[in-house]
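As a point of orientation, let us examine one representative protein, giving the amino acid sequence and backbone structure tokens.
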Amino acid sequence: MNITDPLSFFMPGTNGQAILLVHGLTGAPAEMRLVARQLNRRGYTIYAPLLAGHGKDVAALRTTSWRHWLESVDRAASDLASHASVVFAAGICVGGALGLLSAHQNPGTIKAAALYSPCFQYDGWNVPFYYPLLSRQIGWLSRVPFLDRLSFAETSTMGIKDERMRRMMAAMSSEGVLERFPGKGLVEMYRLGIALKKRLPEISTPTLILHSREDDLSDPRHAEYIRSHIGGRRQLHWIDDSYHMIHVDRQRLQVADITADFFEEAHAREPS
């Protein structure tokens, strides 16, 4: 694998199959390492690419849109396909939506997708009161220039229930994880959500949805919405002892094993 940036990572596997792991908004490939190791132990080749505009600072992220992020996933999937007979995609929050859209657009490349903590807007129990207010008005606010110049801090929990793992994530700024995100991030997340909702009925990609009942950033109804509207085969699994970042929180090993089990099912390998 020819990796051109220092933050993406590649782990060769043994079963001839690969999983593209997509990080979330303001995140970086480093946040995917724990779940990547478990999936790699199951035999999968792993590639975690850096999304466009990420890994540097808020100013760099402001210059990109969700379409740029999707192009990053498309390119990464194409590159990974040369290293495996079958490619799957899994991602956290925005990363899951990007992986699913890429799978839909490239059914010959990505055979199935896993969505961790899907989110159309930040409306969980621990977000500041103005996040849902902004999200509900984001359609017209996206036209207001000042929103692009705003930036917002992470919540106190950082989406993680386990305090030790929270400290670990807090130390990842040197690995490209941003401590703040721009207002434009909310706008692009909204636009990505609109694009995904429009396509859900026509998406035939086998899809796994994993969501915590205690998600502090994304209400569980987002997972229910995708399950109810997606056109293809789907499975929804509830996680009970984690917050939003289920791929690094207390049940990260369970998340990885449920993912691997789903990808090992016959329907996940059948042509779309």
The first helix runs from residue 33 to 41. The chain is about 40% helix and 15% strand. Residues 88 and 219 are 26 Å apart (CA to CA). The domain at 9-268 is CATH 3.40.50.1820 (Rossmann fold).
